[in-house]
Design goal:
Layout lengths: L5 H19 L8 E2 L2 E5 H20 L23 H22 L14 H23 L8 H20 L4 H4 L7 E6 L9 E5 L6 E4 L6 E5 L1 H8 L11 E4 L1 H10 L4
Parallel strand pairs: 3-6
Antiparallel strand pairs: 1-2, 3-4, 4-5, 6-7
InterPro entries: DinB/YfiT-like, Maleyloyr_isom, MDMPI_C-term_domain, MDMPI_metal-binding
GO molecular function: isomerase activity
Organism: Streptomyces olivaceus
């Protein structure tokens, strides 16, 4: 899949930041535990996302050639007082605006250090879009709110970027858990049941010895995960249980669980 246009990512960062802000200002306790990130409270999660946005903005704005500590990003610490939803909301809004402004000014090909092999502002536009999509869902779970909207093109791109990250972890980072995902002959099929036909939102993921591969299309596999695209995305990121309403697992469930246990963002 070709990544989305740069401006599309910038627009989506703004929308998904608003979605996170809505969870923060919903009246839910900022001390509430995030079920999918149990070491964090809702406020911890919001501060993590805002800090990441400001860090990405710093890397892009300064055309960084090497890593810069997150804490060096202006305003990365967030509001001094904890438990103030209004202050946290204003800081998140500014964080999103700072990131989008830096990304739009740099354009997709602007140089910027990243931990991946792609050292451009375009990498950060895509990465922060999907960081926000998933963490906004985390915040909604913590706040007891229904999941917000994830546009189909962004959801499909998030699945594909996640596959790229897992492969990168196997081939470059030598991640021990990702490297267990080498099972020749095994295949996982993801099938979105509600996506527009032109999006072709189906994937066959294979696990050969030389690292995972995938392709678009409707093909048989040892196990299939079927359901609405946004739900397939969230289950694939371990934000929804496989037994969630609307999802269906057909075939070797243990293989899918094996994948989910080892495909982690480290």
């Amino acid at each position: 899949m070709t990544p989305l246009p740069h401006d599309r990512y910038c627009d989506e960062i703004g929308r998904q930041t608003d979605r996170l802000r809505a969870a923060v200002t919903s009246g839910a306790a900022l001390t509430a535990t995030v079920p999918t990130c149990p070491d964090w409270s809702l406020e911890d999660l919001a501060r993590h996302v805002g800090r990441a946005l400001r860090w990405a903005a710093l890397l892009v704005r300064t055309r960084a050639e090497e890593d810069v500590p997150e804490d060096e990003a202006p305003g990365a610490g967030g509001p001094v007082t904890r438990g103030d939803a209004a202050a946290l909301d204003a800081w998140l809004a500014e964080s999103g605006e700072t990131a989008v402004g830096a990304l739009r000014e740099a354009g997709p090909d602007g140089p910027a250090w990243s931990w991946s092999g792609i050292r451009t502002a375009g990498f950060w536009a895509r990465r922060m879009t999907h960081e926000l999509i998933v963490h906004a869902a985390d915040a909604e779970l913590a706040a007891g709110r229904p999941f917000g909207t994830v546009p189909a093109d962004a959801a499909a791109d998030a699945i594909e970027e996640w596959l790229e990250i897992v492969r990168y972890a196997q081939q470059v980072m030598s991640d021990p858990e990702a490297n267990e995902l080498r099972v020749p002959g095994a295949g996982i099929h993801l099938h979105a049941t509600d996506a527009p036909a032109e999006l072709n939102a189906e994937w066959l993921i294979e696990l050969p010895d030389d690292g995972i591969t995938w392709r678009r299309g409707h093909e048989k596999a040892a196990v299939a995960l079927r359901g609405p695209l946004a739900d397939v995305l969230l289950a694939f990121y371990r934000r929804l249980p496989l037994d969630a309403p609307g999802l269906e697992v057909l075939g070797d469930r243990k293989l899918l669980e094996f994948w989910l246990d080892r495909a982690t963002f480290t």
